[in-house]
Design brief:
By secondary structure, the protein is α/β, with parallel strands linked by helices. It contains 7 helices and 6 strands, in the order βααβαβαααβαββ. A 6-stranded mixed β-sheet has the order 3-2-4-1-5-6. β2, α3 (about 60-75) and β3 form a beta-alpha-beta unit.
């Protein structure tokens, strides 16, 4: 049984514009920095054990900055975390930098295919949630029993299936909030 305290990175300008970031290294904006601090406060309020837990972080800049700010906000040594490439966001391939609005107009057939099976759909040159789950599975098998994870929306959706038991066809449609903490336990999840 695992317990994961999940923090999604704070907002970036691309989030605000509705652009697909994937593995592009887009920095936090001012609101994103505020959200990172808020996530740290929420985490500490939810578990005073946050200081003793391992922090596992995607190596992309927006997640590293989020972890650094969240940790500093609750009085922890900012760089006291470990990065792991397996926690990186899924890649959208050649769609990165595009908006859904534009893609739906330009790539209608692919947009329909994605809508029909969002879990298994692979964007051109990209990665599906199913493929991301294959990348996450070995990490999860060796992850500590309880940890703070700072990562991305796609990773959260995969962990919702692998830890909290959400069905594959439901997970891709879950909103993954910035500035909040998602607690994942065996068979359940709750936003804090």
């Amino acid at each position: 049984m695992k317990r994961i305290w999940f923090i999604r990175h704070g907002e970036t300008d691309w989030n605000r514009e509705g652009r697909l970031q994937g593995q592009r290294d887009i920095p936090l904006n001012d609101l994103g920095r505020q959200q990172a601090a808020e996530a740290g406060r929420r985490l500490l309020a939810a578990t005073p054990e946050a200081a003793r837990l391992p922090w596992l972080v995607s190596p992309l800049g927006r997640t590293v900055e989020t972890a650094t700010i969240a940790r500093a906000t609750i009085g922890l040594d900012p760089p006291g975390f470990v990065t792991d490439t397996r926690l990186m966001e899924l890649t959208f391939g050649r769609w990165e930098g595009e908006t859904w609005h534009d893609l739906k107009k330009r790539e209608r057939e692919l947009a329909r295919a994605r809508k029909a099976d969002k879990w298994n759909f692979v964007p051109p040159g990209g990665e599906s949630y199913a493929l991301l789950a294959q990348r996450i599975a070995p990490w999860l098998a060796t992850a500590p029993e309880e940890a703070v994870v700072v990562s991305h929306g796609g990773v959260a959706r995969v962990l919702l299936t692998m830890v909290a038991g959400l069905r594959h066809h439901e997970a891709p449609f879950q909103d993954i909030h910035q500035g909040q903490v998602l607690r994942l336990d065996a068979g359940k999840h709750v936003w804090i």
